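QA checklist item 7 of 12: single-chain prediction sanity check.
[x] sequence parsed
[x] length recorded as 337
[x] structure emitted
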Amino acid sequence: MQIGLILLGVALILVVLVFNWWQDRRIRQKMQVHFPEREQDPLMGGAPAPAGRREPGFGVREPVQEPAAHDPAEVDPATEVVIDINFAQPVSSDQLHPVIKALHKAGNKAVRIFAECDGGGHRARLRPGESYISMQLSVVLANRSGPLTDIEWSHVWSMAQRIAERFDGAIEAPEQEQVMRRAAELDRLCADLDALVGVALRLQGTQPVTEISRVLKEVGFLPYGNQLAWMAETGTPRFTVLFDGVPAQEVQSAGVDRIDLLLDLPNSPPDGQAFSRMAGVGRDLAARLHAVLLDDQGRPVSEGADDAIDKQLLDLYARLDKAGFEAGTERTARVFS
């Protein structure tokens, strides 16, 4: 009896061990389906670069942790026209980059480039290590130089053809007549919404550029690109300075006779006191520099006109916004440039 119980206990233990082994094997098989083993252990020599390290790129600083879903920028169908290039085979970023690095303008029109990743996702910039199955060349339909011309459109077509020929691609684009019509319509719309407003400081004779620059910075002007600008809280200029009609960084002479304060309304943030703010700074500068403040007609600026001009400009800000061009934004700058 005792021996029989011992044998039964051993048998039960063996059954449990076999059952556990079978369960473990089944779980491992399921895990193998979802998480196949890699040729190299990520904890050993073949591990990827640690977080924070970046491989050499194309002058583009992309955070390592950034998800590879979509870049924020995208084609603007209301203000741009697109040529699609579909590749027969995926093309790597290092092959594409030398071909597109100079494709930023067609005549006076800005060209933007987008790419569709092999495996999904769109890019506004090429990224090292990726491949792309298609590209888009997106050209602005109109800007301050006028509507897109047939010559500029042909230039974009030539760009697209070179890329397509290089990588065995197929081109899709709208008819030229349709493109020209859309360009003319956008140009007419924007011409009615555009405004540049200025006041001038007529100095008492030629003054040293260095001294004028010092005074401008003293009152609050800051460097912005090649200009000096009076900045808004948003980090964009409310108005800028011209030295005898030239931006600060482009002045060639040692002296200046006239300073202009220029409000580029579509490219400045909406402001209910846009003109009076600029005129107030102008009056302060006039007192400091012993200058005369003039309007764009060459007449002395009257303080009584500030409020009326502010209201006119505020109405124009509202019209821009209603037309889909919020003042001071990147989208608006593409058209009003």
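[x] summary fact logged: Helices lie at 2-34, 93-100, 150-166, 176-191, 209-219, 274-289, 306-322, 330-335.
[ ] second reviewer sign-off
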